[in-house]
Amino acid sequence: MMEQLNQTLFLIINATPASPEWLIKLAVFIAKDLINIVPLLIAILWLWGQRKQITAQREMVIKTAMAIIISVSLSWVVGHLFPHDRPFVDGIGYNFLHHAPDDSYPSDHGTVIFTFALAFAFWHRVWSGVALFTLACVIAWSRVYLGVHWPLDMLGGLLVGLCSCGLAQMVWNVWGMQIYKRLHQAHRFCFALFIRKGWVRD
């Protein structure tokens, strides 16, 4: 029953040769490039910010990074335990984005961006979490629309992200301060020149 629902939802969302060319090009940009917001925001929050907020920002960055590492690892394990072909491998629908014919469940893109959005919702601000969750849904739509993923691949990524944020919080509760101190020392060493010049925060 779930497989039938998965296919039905996919065929509703998936683009066809009759779909507008501009929408397909927009979806390709969203599917390939918007994920870059993850390292960009992580770098910004780690390097810059108001002095009174920089410690909280860096703690959030560390927890987010841990959640992403955990989620990618869990995604790999789940993908090997429950292998599932991509739509174009099964000859279903239309494909508009070149992709290797590897396992589709859960989506790596979906896992990373949903983990990122949930991390902001839990550890930053509700509004930033809502904004990033909206972006995550748009990225999820684009990859189904272009035919490289099933809708349930994206739901799987969301569930993995949710579990990973919980596990990251547990790790932080036990070893968080030690991790923060080590990374702060590494930051001071690597960015010593830029810190002295005032280009990045200490």
Topology, element by element:
Blueprint: H1 2-13, H2 21-33, H3 37-47, H4 54-81, H5 108-123, H6 126-145, H7 151-190, H8 192-196
Helix pairs in contact: 2-6, 3-4, 4-5, 4-7, 5-6, 5-7
Low-confidence stretches: none
Main pleated sheet? none
Mean pLDDT: 94
Series of H and E elements: HHHHHHHH
Radius of gyration: 19 Å
Can you count the beta strands?
0
Helix count equals 8
Q: End-to-end distance, in Å?
A: 55 Å
**Helix/strand-derived class?**
mainly alpha
Shape: elongated
Quaternary status of these chains?
A: single chain
Estimate what percentage of residues fall within beta strands.
under 5%
**Helix content estimate:** over 70%
Report on the architecture of this protein:
- By secondary structure, the protein is mostly helical.
- It has eight helices and no strands.
- The longest helix has 40 residues, at 151-190.
